[in-house]
Amino acid sequence: MLQLEGVCKSFTKNGITREVLSGIDATFLPGDAVGILGRNGAGKSTLMRILAGVEQPTSGKVRRRMSISWPMGYDAAVHGALTGADNTRFIARLYDRPVGWMEGFVQEFSEIGEEFRKPVKTYSDGMKARLIFALSMAVDFDCYLIDEVIAAGDARFAERCRQALLARRGRSALILVSHQTNTVRTLCSHAAILHEGRLIFHEDLDQAFAEYEQL
Amino acid sequence: MRTERQEPSLLQVFRARMRVMAALMIRELHTRFGRENLGYIWLFMEPALLGVGVAIWQWSMQGSAAMPGNLNKFSFFLIGYILFYLFRTLVSRSPHGIAANFQLLYHSRVTVESVMWARSVLDGAAVAVCITIFLVLIGVALGDWPSDPLQIMVGVALMMLLAHGTGLIFLAATAINPGIVDKIVHPFTYLSIPFSGMFYMVWWLPGSFQEIVLLSPLMHIMEFTREGQFGRRVPYTYDMTYMLIWIAAVNFIGLCALKVAKPHMEH
Questions:
Q1: Which in A18, A124, A215, B84 has the greatest CB count within 10 A?
Q2: In this complex, is the C-beta atom of A84 within 8 Å of any C-beta atom belonging to chain B?
Q3: CA distance A182 to A201
Q4: In angstroms, what CA-CA distances link B199 with B74, B84, B192, B223?
Q5: Is B74 among the domain residues?
């Protein structure tokens, strides 16, 4: 279970305080597949970082009772100066997975071949995305946080990601943020709209999309 | 199959924390020192070179004059410097300790506290090894072996804990007001040199000065460590309770300040 209770987040820059999230309540359970729709600047990535625990809310509570992935779609989960293999070993140790097994799995799943032994900063964006996704699959999280970026780029890999995520629907929770309705439709069972700092849930996808289009 | 998760026991939580710490320390070693070139050697060479430099400088300045209590100059200044180096390096790096490693926080198991702990323990261990190497070298070359090596290591641990707590306070303050902290940290570490006992001992000073320098917990830790080094040859002035109160206080204040500052940390 991942639960948000009255989560507010504001940023202060040059003495001006801007509230991005103003009181979010939500509960995500294993097996949920929720698409969070929001226009640019609605606070999607802020919400993502709070769910992941990268940032703390200004007020409110976040309870994590399941293992939560890093937000997929940013390359922050890996360190550029380290090789793919080093990053893999670090993550294996961190999440208590067998190091040798994980190296094999990630090298194969990510299809980056010998580049696995080179520093991540030499990778192309596509390779980096594949490495990060393979790492998250190897850790086997209870809850995956996914930014829409994953749907972009290499079409074949995007399709593999989609298949891998669909295969876990039911046992892992999936939280996808997007500003496009079609990504949400293929992966999610229900949707929520992030607008003016609040998150409104809809059981019915079509109803959510209709409402989202009107914003 | 997944079943509904039980609340983890205290032991499980502790073991999970230790695992995260170990992973962070190995990674910190990799990112800071690389796996090629001199690699890990630098971890020990950096404080050692600084220590040797200061020792040679002090030695040449003092010429043939004897030290009070006939203490070995080389080991006196070297160990003093390396011990203070631990304090200085932990405190002066603390304000940006997280900014430089913010990617780590993308892993929900990694907390700000665990990142800071990993760095402190790693630097503390590096300094302990560095001191050990020099104690052995001095012992072999000059025949001056430490009287109680364990007490020296306890001194290193106390210094690490004091610096860790102080660093947490600076880290929290940086999140709230980065401009001011940047200006304060370096003067703070330089100004603490005269109150660290790096170059002198309490009993060398007249009584009124003694009272002033003994307000500094650094002074107590330095005296305690030197007792482990030179034994009962000279008098030492320290108060273990005073040191522990300081350590507990800065760590407690640091953790509270960090709790307040966390919502202000942006990545």
A1: B84
A2: no
A3: 17
A4: 11, 10, 12, 11
A5: yes
- Say if the Cβ atoms of B2 and A94 lie within 8 Å: no
pLDDT band of B42, cuts 50, 70, 90: low
Top residue of A8, A54, A67 to mutate, by most chain B CBs within 10 Å, is A54
**The pLDDT of residue B3 is above 50:** no
Inside any domain, residue A131? yes
**Tally of structural domains, chain A:** 1
Residue A52 to residue B27, Cβ atoms within 8 A: no
ipTM of this predicted structure: 0.84
Q: Tell me B6's DSSP state.
A: P
The rounded Cα A46 to chain-centroid distance in angstroms is 12
Q: Kindly report the CA angle at A14 between A10 and A17, in degrees rounded to 5? A: 25
**Is residue B4 a part of any domain in this protein?**
no
Q: pTM of the predicted model, to two decimals?
A: 0.86
- For the four alpha carbons of B81, B42, B93 and B252, in that order, the dihedral sign comes to negative
Q: Is B259 on the interface with A (CB under 8 A)?
A: no
Does residue B2 fall inside a structural domain? no
Task: Note whether A47 and A24 are within 8 A (CB).
Answer: yes
Edge-first strand listing for the sheet containing A16-28: A16-28, A2-13, A59-64
Q: Which spans in B34-67 are helix H?
A: 41-62
CB atoms within 10 A of CB B85: 22
Q: Using the 8-state DSSP alphabet, how is residue A83 labeled?
A: B
Cβ contact, residue pair A53, B267, below 8 Å: no
The domain tally of chain B equals: 1
Question: pLDDT tens across A161-189, in order?
Answer: 888 888 887 788 999 988 888 878 888 88
Q: Is residue B3 part of a domain?
A: no
pLDDT digits (tens, 9 = 90+) for B213-251: 999 999 999 999 999 999 888 889 999 999 999 999 999
Pick from A4, A116, A118: which is nearest to A53 by CA?
A: A4
| Boundaries of domain holding B176 | 11-264
Residue A22 CA, distance from chain mean position? 21
Tell me which H or E stretch contains B28: helix B10-33
